[in-house]
């Protein structure tokens, strides 16, 4: 798979990314185009699109910090969903770093959210028991409760507090 890092909303792949992004996440979990453009100016923000030949497979939007990577958004194109690309992409992403990978999922309340948790567990993610409210992306929304997962093992209280601080003061500010 080819990995293409987007650097601005003017990149030719940005509209392809944006279609999948907008269809994969509810509006309250989305950056606006302006917020996305601002994020792309940060050296530690990576918006990576994955291509197989000419086929857009999906994307990972993540932040690199000193001792962990935070996957802010991740989605696989519905054209290839169920064909192992999600497992392959995320598996290679995790294998490509010696840092802990942190991500968030919706609370497990139904079969779809249970399936999502099983997917991440199969890749080596574990649940963390911290009460976690993700700050709103837009002023018209409120924060929303999410479950924090981390690769390999649970994170310490200090690492969680560091992540939560970075989320509020770096990720959401860019």
From TrEMBL:
SUPFAM superfamilies: Acyl-CoA N-acyltransferases (Nat). Residues 4-147 form the N-acetyltransferase domain. PROSITE patterns: GNAT. Pfam families: Acetyltransf_1. InterPro entries: Acyl_CoA_acyltransferase (IPR016181), GNAT_dom (IPR000182). It comes from the Bacteria. This is N-acetyltransferase.
């Amino acid at each position: 798979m080819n990995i293409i890092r987007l650097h601005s909303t003017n990149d030719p792949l940005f509209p392809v990314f944006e279609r999948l992004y907008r269809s994969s996440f509810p509006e309250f979990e989305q950056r606006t185009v302006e917020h996305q453009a601002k994020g792309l100016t940060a050296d530690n923000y990576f918006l990576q699109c994955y291509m197989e030949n000419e086929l857009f497979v999906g994307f990972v939007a993540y932040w690199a910090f000193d001792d962990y990577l935070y996957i802010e958004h991740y989605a696989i194109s519905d054209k290839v969903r169920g064909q192992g690309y999600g497992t392959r992409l995320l598996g290679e992403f995790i294998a490509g770093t010696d840092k802990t990978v942190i991500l968030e999922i919706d609370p497990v309340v139904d079969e779809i959210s249970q399936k999502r948790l099983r997917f991440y567990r199969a890749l080596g993610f574990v649940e963390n028991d911290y009460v976690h409210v993700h700050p709103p992306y837009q002023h018209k929304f409120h924060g929303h409760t999410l479950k924090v997962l981390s690769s390999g093992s649970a994170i310490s209280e200090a690492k969680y507090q560091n992540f939560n601080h970075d989320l509020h003061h770096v990720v959401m500010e860019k």
